[in-house]
Amino acid sequence: MENKFIEGDASGLAFMGKIASNATHEMNNVLSIIGEYAGVIEDKIHAALNGADFDIEKVLYCKEKIDNQISRGRSLNKELNKFSHSVDEKISTFDLSGVIESMILLTNRFAASKLIKLSFENSGEDETVRGNLFEIERKLFLLIYFLPEVFAKGAEIKFSINHSNDSGEIVAECRGPENAGKPAFESLLGEIFDDDSFYDLTECDESYKISFKLKEFIERE
Amino acid sequence: MDKKIKIVIVDDESELVFPMADRLEMRGFDVQAADSSTSALMLFEKDRFDIALIDVKMPGISGIDLMKMIFRLQPDIKVILMSGHGTEELVRDCKKMGACDLLIKPVKMRDLIERIHGIISPEDE
Description:
The complex is a heterodimer.
Chain A: H1 3-7, H2 13-49, H3 56-84, E1 92-95, H4 96-113, E2 116-120, E3 128-131, H5 133-146, E4 155-162, E5 169-175, H6 182-192, E6 197-204, E7 207-214, E8 219-220
Chain B: E1 6-10, H1 14-26, E2 30-34, H2 37-46, E3 51-55, H3 63-73, E4 78-83, H4 88-96, E5 101-104, H5 109-119
Parallel strand pairs in B: 1-2, 1-3, 3-4, 4-5
């Protein structure tokens, strides 16, 4: 495990760098796709100018694909902007569901490259909490970033929020075809969840359930 | 009749490979597209290609690993890699491993066509 990444990242700069790099890579793909579909439209116009029938259906299809990518780019940009403001205040009031969804969007490409599939079971309940937003985001990221060390052949992580207590507890249910076993999991979690957090690990039906929350600063509004 | 240059494009962004394939076909190439390394390997089981255009960063089998695998299946194939971000070091490493070039995304069609004609000589065509 990249102990140095966690040890040397007390300020969270490396974490923010990883998020930014992931998002710029994703944005680059958005621009590339827009460029390709715009290119197809240009080709169709040239073909029509050279006497071919104007393929209006194809052009409209490409326009729709471009619109979809613009929406994708806008969402990414919005989440990245929100994320960049998460260090503005150490303690703030935020929607925990929104934070989990945002982190999934911002880390999805990285996770997919490691064969990790992320999802969030949103109960639809009000999840407004008060706490250290940046630390919550960092813990979520570290979990996603290091999980491939336990599930070398990929895994699914389903996030949810535990409603059985008053504090905002995040649950990550991890399931994969092969895993390095509970001791490897415990070692990983021991490094991610340091003195400022509580975590619990349970093994059930070939999956692992990790529940975690920050020690002091997460409370429901 | 001239034989068409056969190209396979491999990128996990399926929204990217299909319009790219369309545009190359409009320019007279015979193109097949795959949105994963595994799908690309299946194409190589049935067919031979002149050029493989491969994204470096893909889930599962990476573009570099795929390149090594297809060199074993078809040693004479020419490979052009694509990447969102590239350093001179990455370009050098890719070339050392046998790639003809590394193009930075978004790839300009004009640059791609130039590269293709640069690595496939008229005799090959």
